[in-house]
User: What shape does this take?
Amino acid sequence: MYWHSFAVFKKAMTASMTQVDYIITTYVKPSQTVPVLATQAAATTYIDAVLAQYDAGNAAKKLEYIMTEKWLASVGSSVDQYTDYRRTGYPVLFAPAPAGTVTSVTGPDGKVTPVQCDRLYPWSLPFNTNEIALNANAPPQKVPENYKVFWQP
Assistant: This one.
């Protein structure tokens, strides 16, 4: 079973890179020669490095590596990414600080950039405003970062 999941994970990462190649050569740059990603040495090095970390990880780490790679492979399918994160908590998302504690960041060049980090990750999506307007019995609009789905603790 273990080697089966290792092999499946490797096959999935390779298929993901092959899909990127297909999209680039078919839709983005069909009239231009573009190097194929899936067969590049860097791609093999990346896959081998992820698999080594996966191999050394416990069950939670293995899930993290799988979900992180799925996140990367599903760029353009934000609903899947959102649902997977809400369901598993992976991949680990970058947050510069707890919500509401940072108002600006200073870059290496000394430039100060204002940031807004005042909302928590939403547990659910807001109700459709058209449906609320058309339904006299609809509940009030929910606050997505506080309103958990029925199966969440």
Observations:
- The chain has a mean pLDDT of 84.
